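Deliverable D2.4 — example input (structure tokens):
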């Protein structure tokens, strides 16, 4: 099997805030469901147990109902000489099930990674509480819809989309509350204490943590809260604890790198705006704010022409939410995208924006 780069960024975290909670015992329910699990193919195999603990939904409420906490445990294939490794799901919403061993674009790389650490360490896969895609007794998912925009004969309005989304989320929250689900139990601290619950249940002194994206935030929360229980942490795509949004400044720095690369390639540089790629980009938004552009896409609508009005919010939305399958989602194509708009060609922005009135569901 090919060597696979497991993570691009590694953090060894052994010291954190002093206001930690190690030493405190979390409430453990005596009722545990556990059954053998064996996932295998011709050239790989993992044996262990699939388990469910029952924990308070809201640990701050003594009368809280109990919810299932689902996890897998795979004992070390050789003698366990090191602390167990806890894999945390990304997302949020990435589930651990037996299917992840077989399906998905990362299945082979993930099995390689798992097998590597499983030689001398027990491996534990913890599912996120409330994840409707994880095994066990899932929290029901109530899906609500909103209009992502208004119509194609006027520019996109981010404020209107925000109002529609806010109303949809309010209805969703109300439905959860009416169903008896305590949403106060689904913050990062409850996720963190779920890790500690599993550690105490397994009666191990220390654990190592592996997490990508949201799972890095989850892991960092545990390191802060229980630093003495952490052997080490291997994190990638690290998200800080202070917020859960991509930093717009970092996105802009990506464009700065793209501009530098484009300017050093003579085949690209000859077609770039004389004022520079990013300076050109900065001029487009105020132009669209002052005067939206009407664009005709030839033969796009079942062979018929489609007329779309695009404005500044269309560009903002395409920058922050590049559409999958278009070159707006491909960093190497942004020089062409920006140059076209700077020179008055907004066809690609219109092509992206034709989906802005699509009904969104979450």
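Example output (designed residues):
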């Amino acid at each position: 099997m090919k060597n696979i780069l497991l993570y691009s960024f590694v953090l060894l975290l052994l010291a954190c805030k002093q206001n930690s909670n190690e030493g405190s015992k979390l409430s453990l329910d005596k009722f545990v469901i556990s059954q053998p699990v064996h996932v295998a193919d011709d050239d790989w195999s993992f044996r262990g147990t699939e388990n469910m603990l029952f924990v308070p939904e809201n640990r701050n409420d003594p009368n809280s109902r109990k919810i299932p906490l689902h996890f897998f445990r795979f004992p070390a294939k050789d003698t366990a000489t090191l602390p167990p490794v806890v894999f945390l799901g990304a997302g949020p919403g990435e589930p651990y099930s037996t299917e992840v061993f077989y399906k998905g674009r990362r299945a082979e790389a993930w099995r390689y990674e798992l097998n590597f650490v499983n030689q001398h360490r027990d491996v534990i896969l913890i599912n996120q509480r409330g994840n409707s895609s994880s095994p066990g007794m899932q929290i029901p998912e109530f899906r609500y819809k909103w209009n992502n925009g208004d119509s194609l004969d006027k520019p996109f309005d981010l404020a209107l989309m925000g109002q529609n989304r806010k109303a949809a989320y309010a209805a969703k929250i109300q439905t959860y509350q009416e169903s008896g689900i305590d949403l106060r139990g689904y913050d990062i601290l409850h996720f963190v204490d779920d890790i500690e619950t599993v550690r105490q249940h397994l009666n191990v002194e220390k654990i190592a943590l592996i997490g990508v994206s949201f799972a890095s935030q989850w892991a960092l929360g545990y390191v802060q809260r229980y630093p003495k229980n952490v052997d080490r942490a291997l994190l990638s795509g690290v998200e800080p604890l202070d917020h859960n949004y991509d930093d717009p400044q970092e996105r802009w720095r990506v464009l700065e790198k793209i501009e530098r690369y484009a300017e050093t390639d003579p085949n690209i540089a000859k077609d770039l705006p004389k004022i520079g790629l990013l300076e050109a980009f900065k001029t487009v938004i105020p132009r669209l704010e002052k005067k939206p552009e009407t664009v005709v896409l030839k033969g796009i609508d079942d062979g018929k022409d489609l007329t779309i009005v695009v404005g500044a919010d269309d560009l903002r939305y395409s920058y922050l939410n590049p559409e999958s399958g278009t070159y707006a989602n491909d960093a190497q194509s942004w020089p062409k995208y920006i140059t076209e708009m700077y020179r008055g060609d907004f066809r690609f922005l219109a092509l992206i924006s034709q989906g802005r009135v699509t009904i969104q569901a979450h």
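The chain has ten helices and eleven strands.
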